[in-house]
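Review form for a predicted model. The reviewer records the input and the model, then writes brief findings.
Reviewer: anonymous (R2)
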Amino acid sequence: MVDANTQLRPASALLPALGAMTSLQALVALALFAPGVVAPRAHIEVWQLSLFSCAVFTIGIPASFWGGGLIARMGSLRIASLCALAIVISMALAAFGTTAALLAAGLCLGLAFGPETPASAALLARLVTTERRAFVFSVRQTGNQIGAVCGSLVLPAIAVSLGPAWCYAAVGSCALIAILLYEWLQPAYAGKATPTPELDLRARLALVTSDRRIATLALASMPFSAMQVSLNTVFVTLGTRELGLNHIEAGMALACAQASGLIGRLGWGYVAMRLNASRAVLVVIGLGMAFCAALLGLDGASLGRTGQFAIAALFGLTASGWNGVFVAEIARLAPQDRVGETTGAVLTASYAGLLAAPAVVSILDGAASLGAAFFALAGLALCGTLALVWGDHGKAGQ
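Model under review:
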């Protein structure tokens, strides 16, 4: 692995590593979406799906925060193998179909969900040039959409024809194949082992708090993540309940947003690469998602079908397209021998936004309306964007 303990390798080594790490995120996404996709056939209730998701994020937060030390010692591709093994075990547990099994599956999947992005950042940061970093990291982040799309298209057909257990078996089989790939690639990226010293809790927190630019990235990532997960989970409900869309139209609008998110992950990365201005691109993205959420929340029903679909596309372009540029900016600012640890520490804040968003939206929906919840999320995203602007004037050590 080309991490803190190896020499920089030529650009020809980038594509295999990028493919491996993109496939890892796709596998995590595929496993994360699997219970929800097969839920109607497997008779899984909404509260059981919520329990599964909360378990993933609850374990994913500490796994991300503390995973950097393991990455430095074991290498990114070995960590990728362990993540894939966690997916295999998680899918085997989920196949039992009980509430306890889904809870255990979620806890196990969190062990893959947390470390996979820091492991990817640590590896790719040493393989890519500064100029291409934003685009390469954005390509890597498309794994989430790839996994979601594959799961949406393939798993329902398997569930109907063979049964839900075979869906989990298919995901687990893909993960087993991935382990063989990662272990095959691992020797080519594993240099002489000279791991950096382990960091304690205070030192890990200092990676974020000692540099105002990194600290404001962590701060902004919380409302950005909350906005993204809310778009993915409750937009259809917003459409049918408050925007005047029928169920099929709302689903099509969300599909439009998801497609735009895939385009956004590549497009924003390309723009950031060409302009060499990742942080400025993140500011534009933050303003865009705040505008879309506020408009839909305040008066989305008056936009008409064309306007609603256009705003949904812009919403997905921003709220689902920021991740690659964000991780690239962390890698740019982090100490180059601590990219994995820094990415994990910053993503802890991001995952906290994922965990808190459902509760916040539910409370605001009960107190006012779902539109009010999206308007509140817009305000939080705007605050996060202003933090990015303020942090851009910070210097390391401030």
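Findings: The first helix runs from residue 14 to 42.
Further findings: The radius of gyration is 20 Å.
Recommendation: see findings above.
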